[in-house]
Write a structure and sequence with these properties.
The protein has 324 residues and is of the alpha/beta class. 49% of the residues lie in helices and 15% in strands. The chain contains 18 helices and nine strands. A seven-stranded mixed sheet has the order 5-4-3-6-7-9-8, with helices on both faces. Strands 1-2 form a two-stranded antiparallel sheet.
């Protein structure tokens, strides 16, 4: 077969990605880590068909995720990276009943998004991503873990690569469990911080701030960033917020920031359109997208904001500072 044709077949195949996701969803990497078993032994335990499970395990063996021993299939060191406690976030990203894993299944309806410019998630599930998170606590918790995992390596870079000490008060709009704001305040003892987040997540942020000994320098408000924000702060931070939304909703979020901070700074941290794959994720999941620098300037100018500086704070994220 022509090499290019074979390459295209491999690129377009769904078999391996789905096999890995099903393995994670069934808990195979953890179940088989130290206790090898045959498909017939596992099938009643997992409530699956033994022949089909054997076919799945055989493919996982081909991939190097599992290996066949005298006692049955066993997870390899490579496969162990898919475990729930592996510490790399993969399990949470791939599990069918996590926020990200569930959302990725909507890619089967990518053609709907391409035809309409709308998210595919509601086509598959009958409601949008954010409604699902609001109504299913385990999805909200999985999403919060995903955001925390993603921030772990970024937080020290963000704190180091920008002069946060210029601001007396900082509002982190949609700041999740508060790991970034906690790190900023810890590194800058003269600062105070507000965090705005939906109440279920806000409760986790309060616990984080207490853990860091920041109760006296922080306030946490359980609210949406579509609601009025705490007024009069020196700066309002939107970290990876706007790419989740189309332009209409992005304007609503920026309008709330400007309303709260007539003399303050708006700090937007985003990727400036560097990943085509991530663009499609934003489209399919939320109907959003990464934007380029000129796109952000256009959005901001509608609110009387002008771009004052651009600072690269991580390998893939830039901080855009806007002022009036």
């Amino acid at each position: 077969m022509d090499t290019d044709v074979q390459r295209l077949r491999e690129m377009s195949g769904l078999i391996t990605p789905m096999a890995l996701r099903v393995a994670v969803t069934l808990g195979l990497p953890d179940r088989l880590r130290d206790n090898p078993a045959t498909a017939h032994e596992l099938a009643p335990e997992l409530k699956v068909d033994p022949l089909a499970l054997d076919l799945l395990l055989a493919h996982l063996t081909t991939l190097g995720v599992a290996e066949l021993t005298d006692a049955g299939y066993r997870t390899t060191d490579l496969g162990a990276l898919l475990g729930a406690d592996a510490g790399n976030g993969l399990n949470n990203l791939l599990h069918h009943d996590s926020a990200a894993g569930r959302a990725d299944l909507a890619f089967v309806d990518l053609i709907h998004s391409v035809r309409t410019g709308e998210p595919a998630y509601p086509v598959r599930y009958g409601r949008d991503f954010w409604t699902d998170l609001a109504e299913q606590r385990h999805l909200r918790d999985a999403f919060d873990r995903q955001m925390t995992d993603r921030m772990r390596d970024w937080v020290p870079q963000i704190v180091r690569n920008y002069d946060w000490s210029r601001f007396g008060t900082l509002v982190d709009v949609g700041g999740g469990h508060g790991s970034l704001l906690a790190a900023i305040l810890t590194a800058n003892p003269a600062m105070r911080g507000h965090l705005v987040e939906l109440e279920d997540t806000a409760a986790g942020a309060r616990a984080v701030f207490s853990l860091y000994g920041l109760d006296d320098r922080t306030e946490v408000i359980g609210a949406s960033f579509f609601d009025p924000l705490p007024a009069g702060a020196d700066a309002y931070l939107l970290f990876d917020i706007l790419h989740d939304w189309d332009d209409e909703q992005a304007h609503r979020i920026l309008a709330r920031c400007v309303e709260a901070a007539p003399d303050g700074r708006i700090l937007v941290v985003e990727s400036l359109g560097e990943s085509t794959a991530f663009d499609l994720i934003m489209l399919v999941h939320f109907g959003g997208r990464d934007r380029g620098l000129h796109d952000f300037e256009r959005l901001a100018s509608a609110h009387g904001l002008r771009l004052e500086s651009v600072t690269q704070v991580t390998g893939g994220r830039s901080l855009l500072e806007f002022t009036r």
